[in-house]
Amino acid sequence: MSRDTLYTSQSAAIGSFEFNDAVASVFPDMLRRSIPGYAQTIEAINGLARRAVQPGSTCYDLGCSLGAATLAMRHGITVPDCRIVAVDNAPAMIEHCRNIVEADNAATPVEVVEADLRETPIDNASMVVLNYTLQFIPAAERNELIGRIARGMRDNGVLVLSEKVTHEDPEFDALLIDLHHDFKRQNAYSELEIARKRAAIENVLIPDTVATHLERLQNAGFRRAGVWLRWFSFVSFVAVR
């Protein structure tokens, strides 16, 4: 695992955040040092797959990046005749993901697809994961995407939706942001790296509130939905179809 030093150089401050080869090469370290609770979310996805995936169904990892959630589902599935479709639109991420999946020895078949998840058919799904993905979709398209996922799911299918969120109270939101920056400092990111990463991602990652997410899930047709993991502004929801 290469160490994330992308925002230590002056050139890193130019342009917006992209899921390119430079990011792919350091992505596990970036996630570990930037997203509190990320490892626990992956572990929880594994446990939920063990409980929720139905025989003869399809599981989807939408915005799969390097395939951490894909492998968590793959190693959690205990029922027969399932498959996993892992989708990402970043060529660098897909290339790395394919290599990681090919090196894995679990039995459930995985199809790694380079595509826009907004155009990916969802059918016969018993588990779908959007792990820090929806926040990169234009806000006006999020309701339709969640609705289309819901329509493609079996009864009692589960959706895992992990997101960075914003709080309705600006002062409390500022506190959560400060605590997150403390987390980054504790993981050896410099003030310069924190500032540059925030500037690069500011107009790329657009967060919603927890209430907005829950309302969207309910309107899409999920029978139950709630927060199952949270650390600062990083929240993971589970919704049941």
UniProtKB/TrEMBL annotation:
A GO molecular-function annotation: carboxyl- or carbamoyltransferase activity
Keywords: S-adenosyl-L-methionine, Transferase
Record keyword S-adenosyl-L-methionine present: yes
Group of enzyme by EC: transferase
Claim: S-adenosyl-L-methionine is one of the keywords in the record: yes
Residues that bind S-adenosyl-L-methionine: Y38, G63, C64, S65, D88, N89, D116, L117, N131, R198
Function field: Catalyzes the conversion of S-adenosyl-L-methionine (SAM) to carboxy-S-adenosyl-L-methionine (Cx-SAM).
Protein name: Carboxy-S-adenosyl-L-methionine synthase
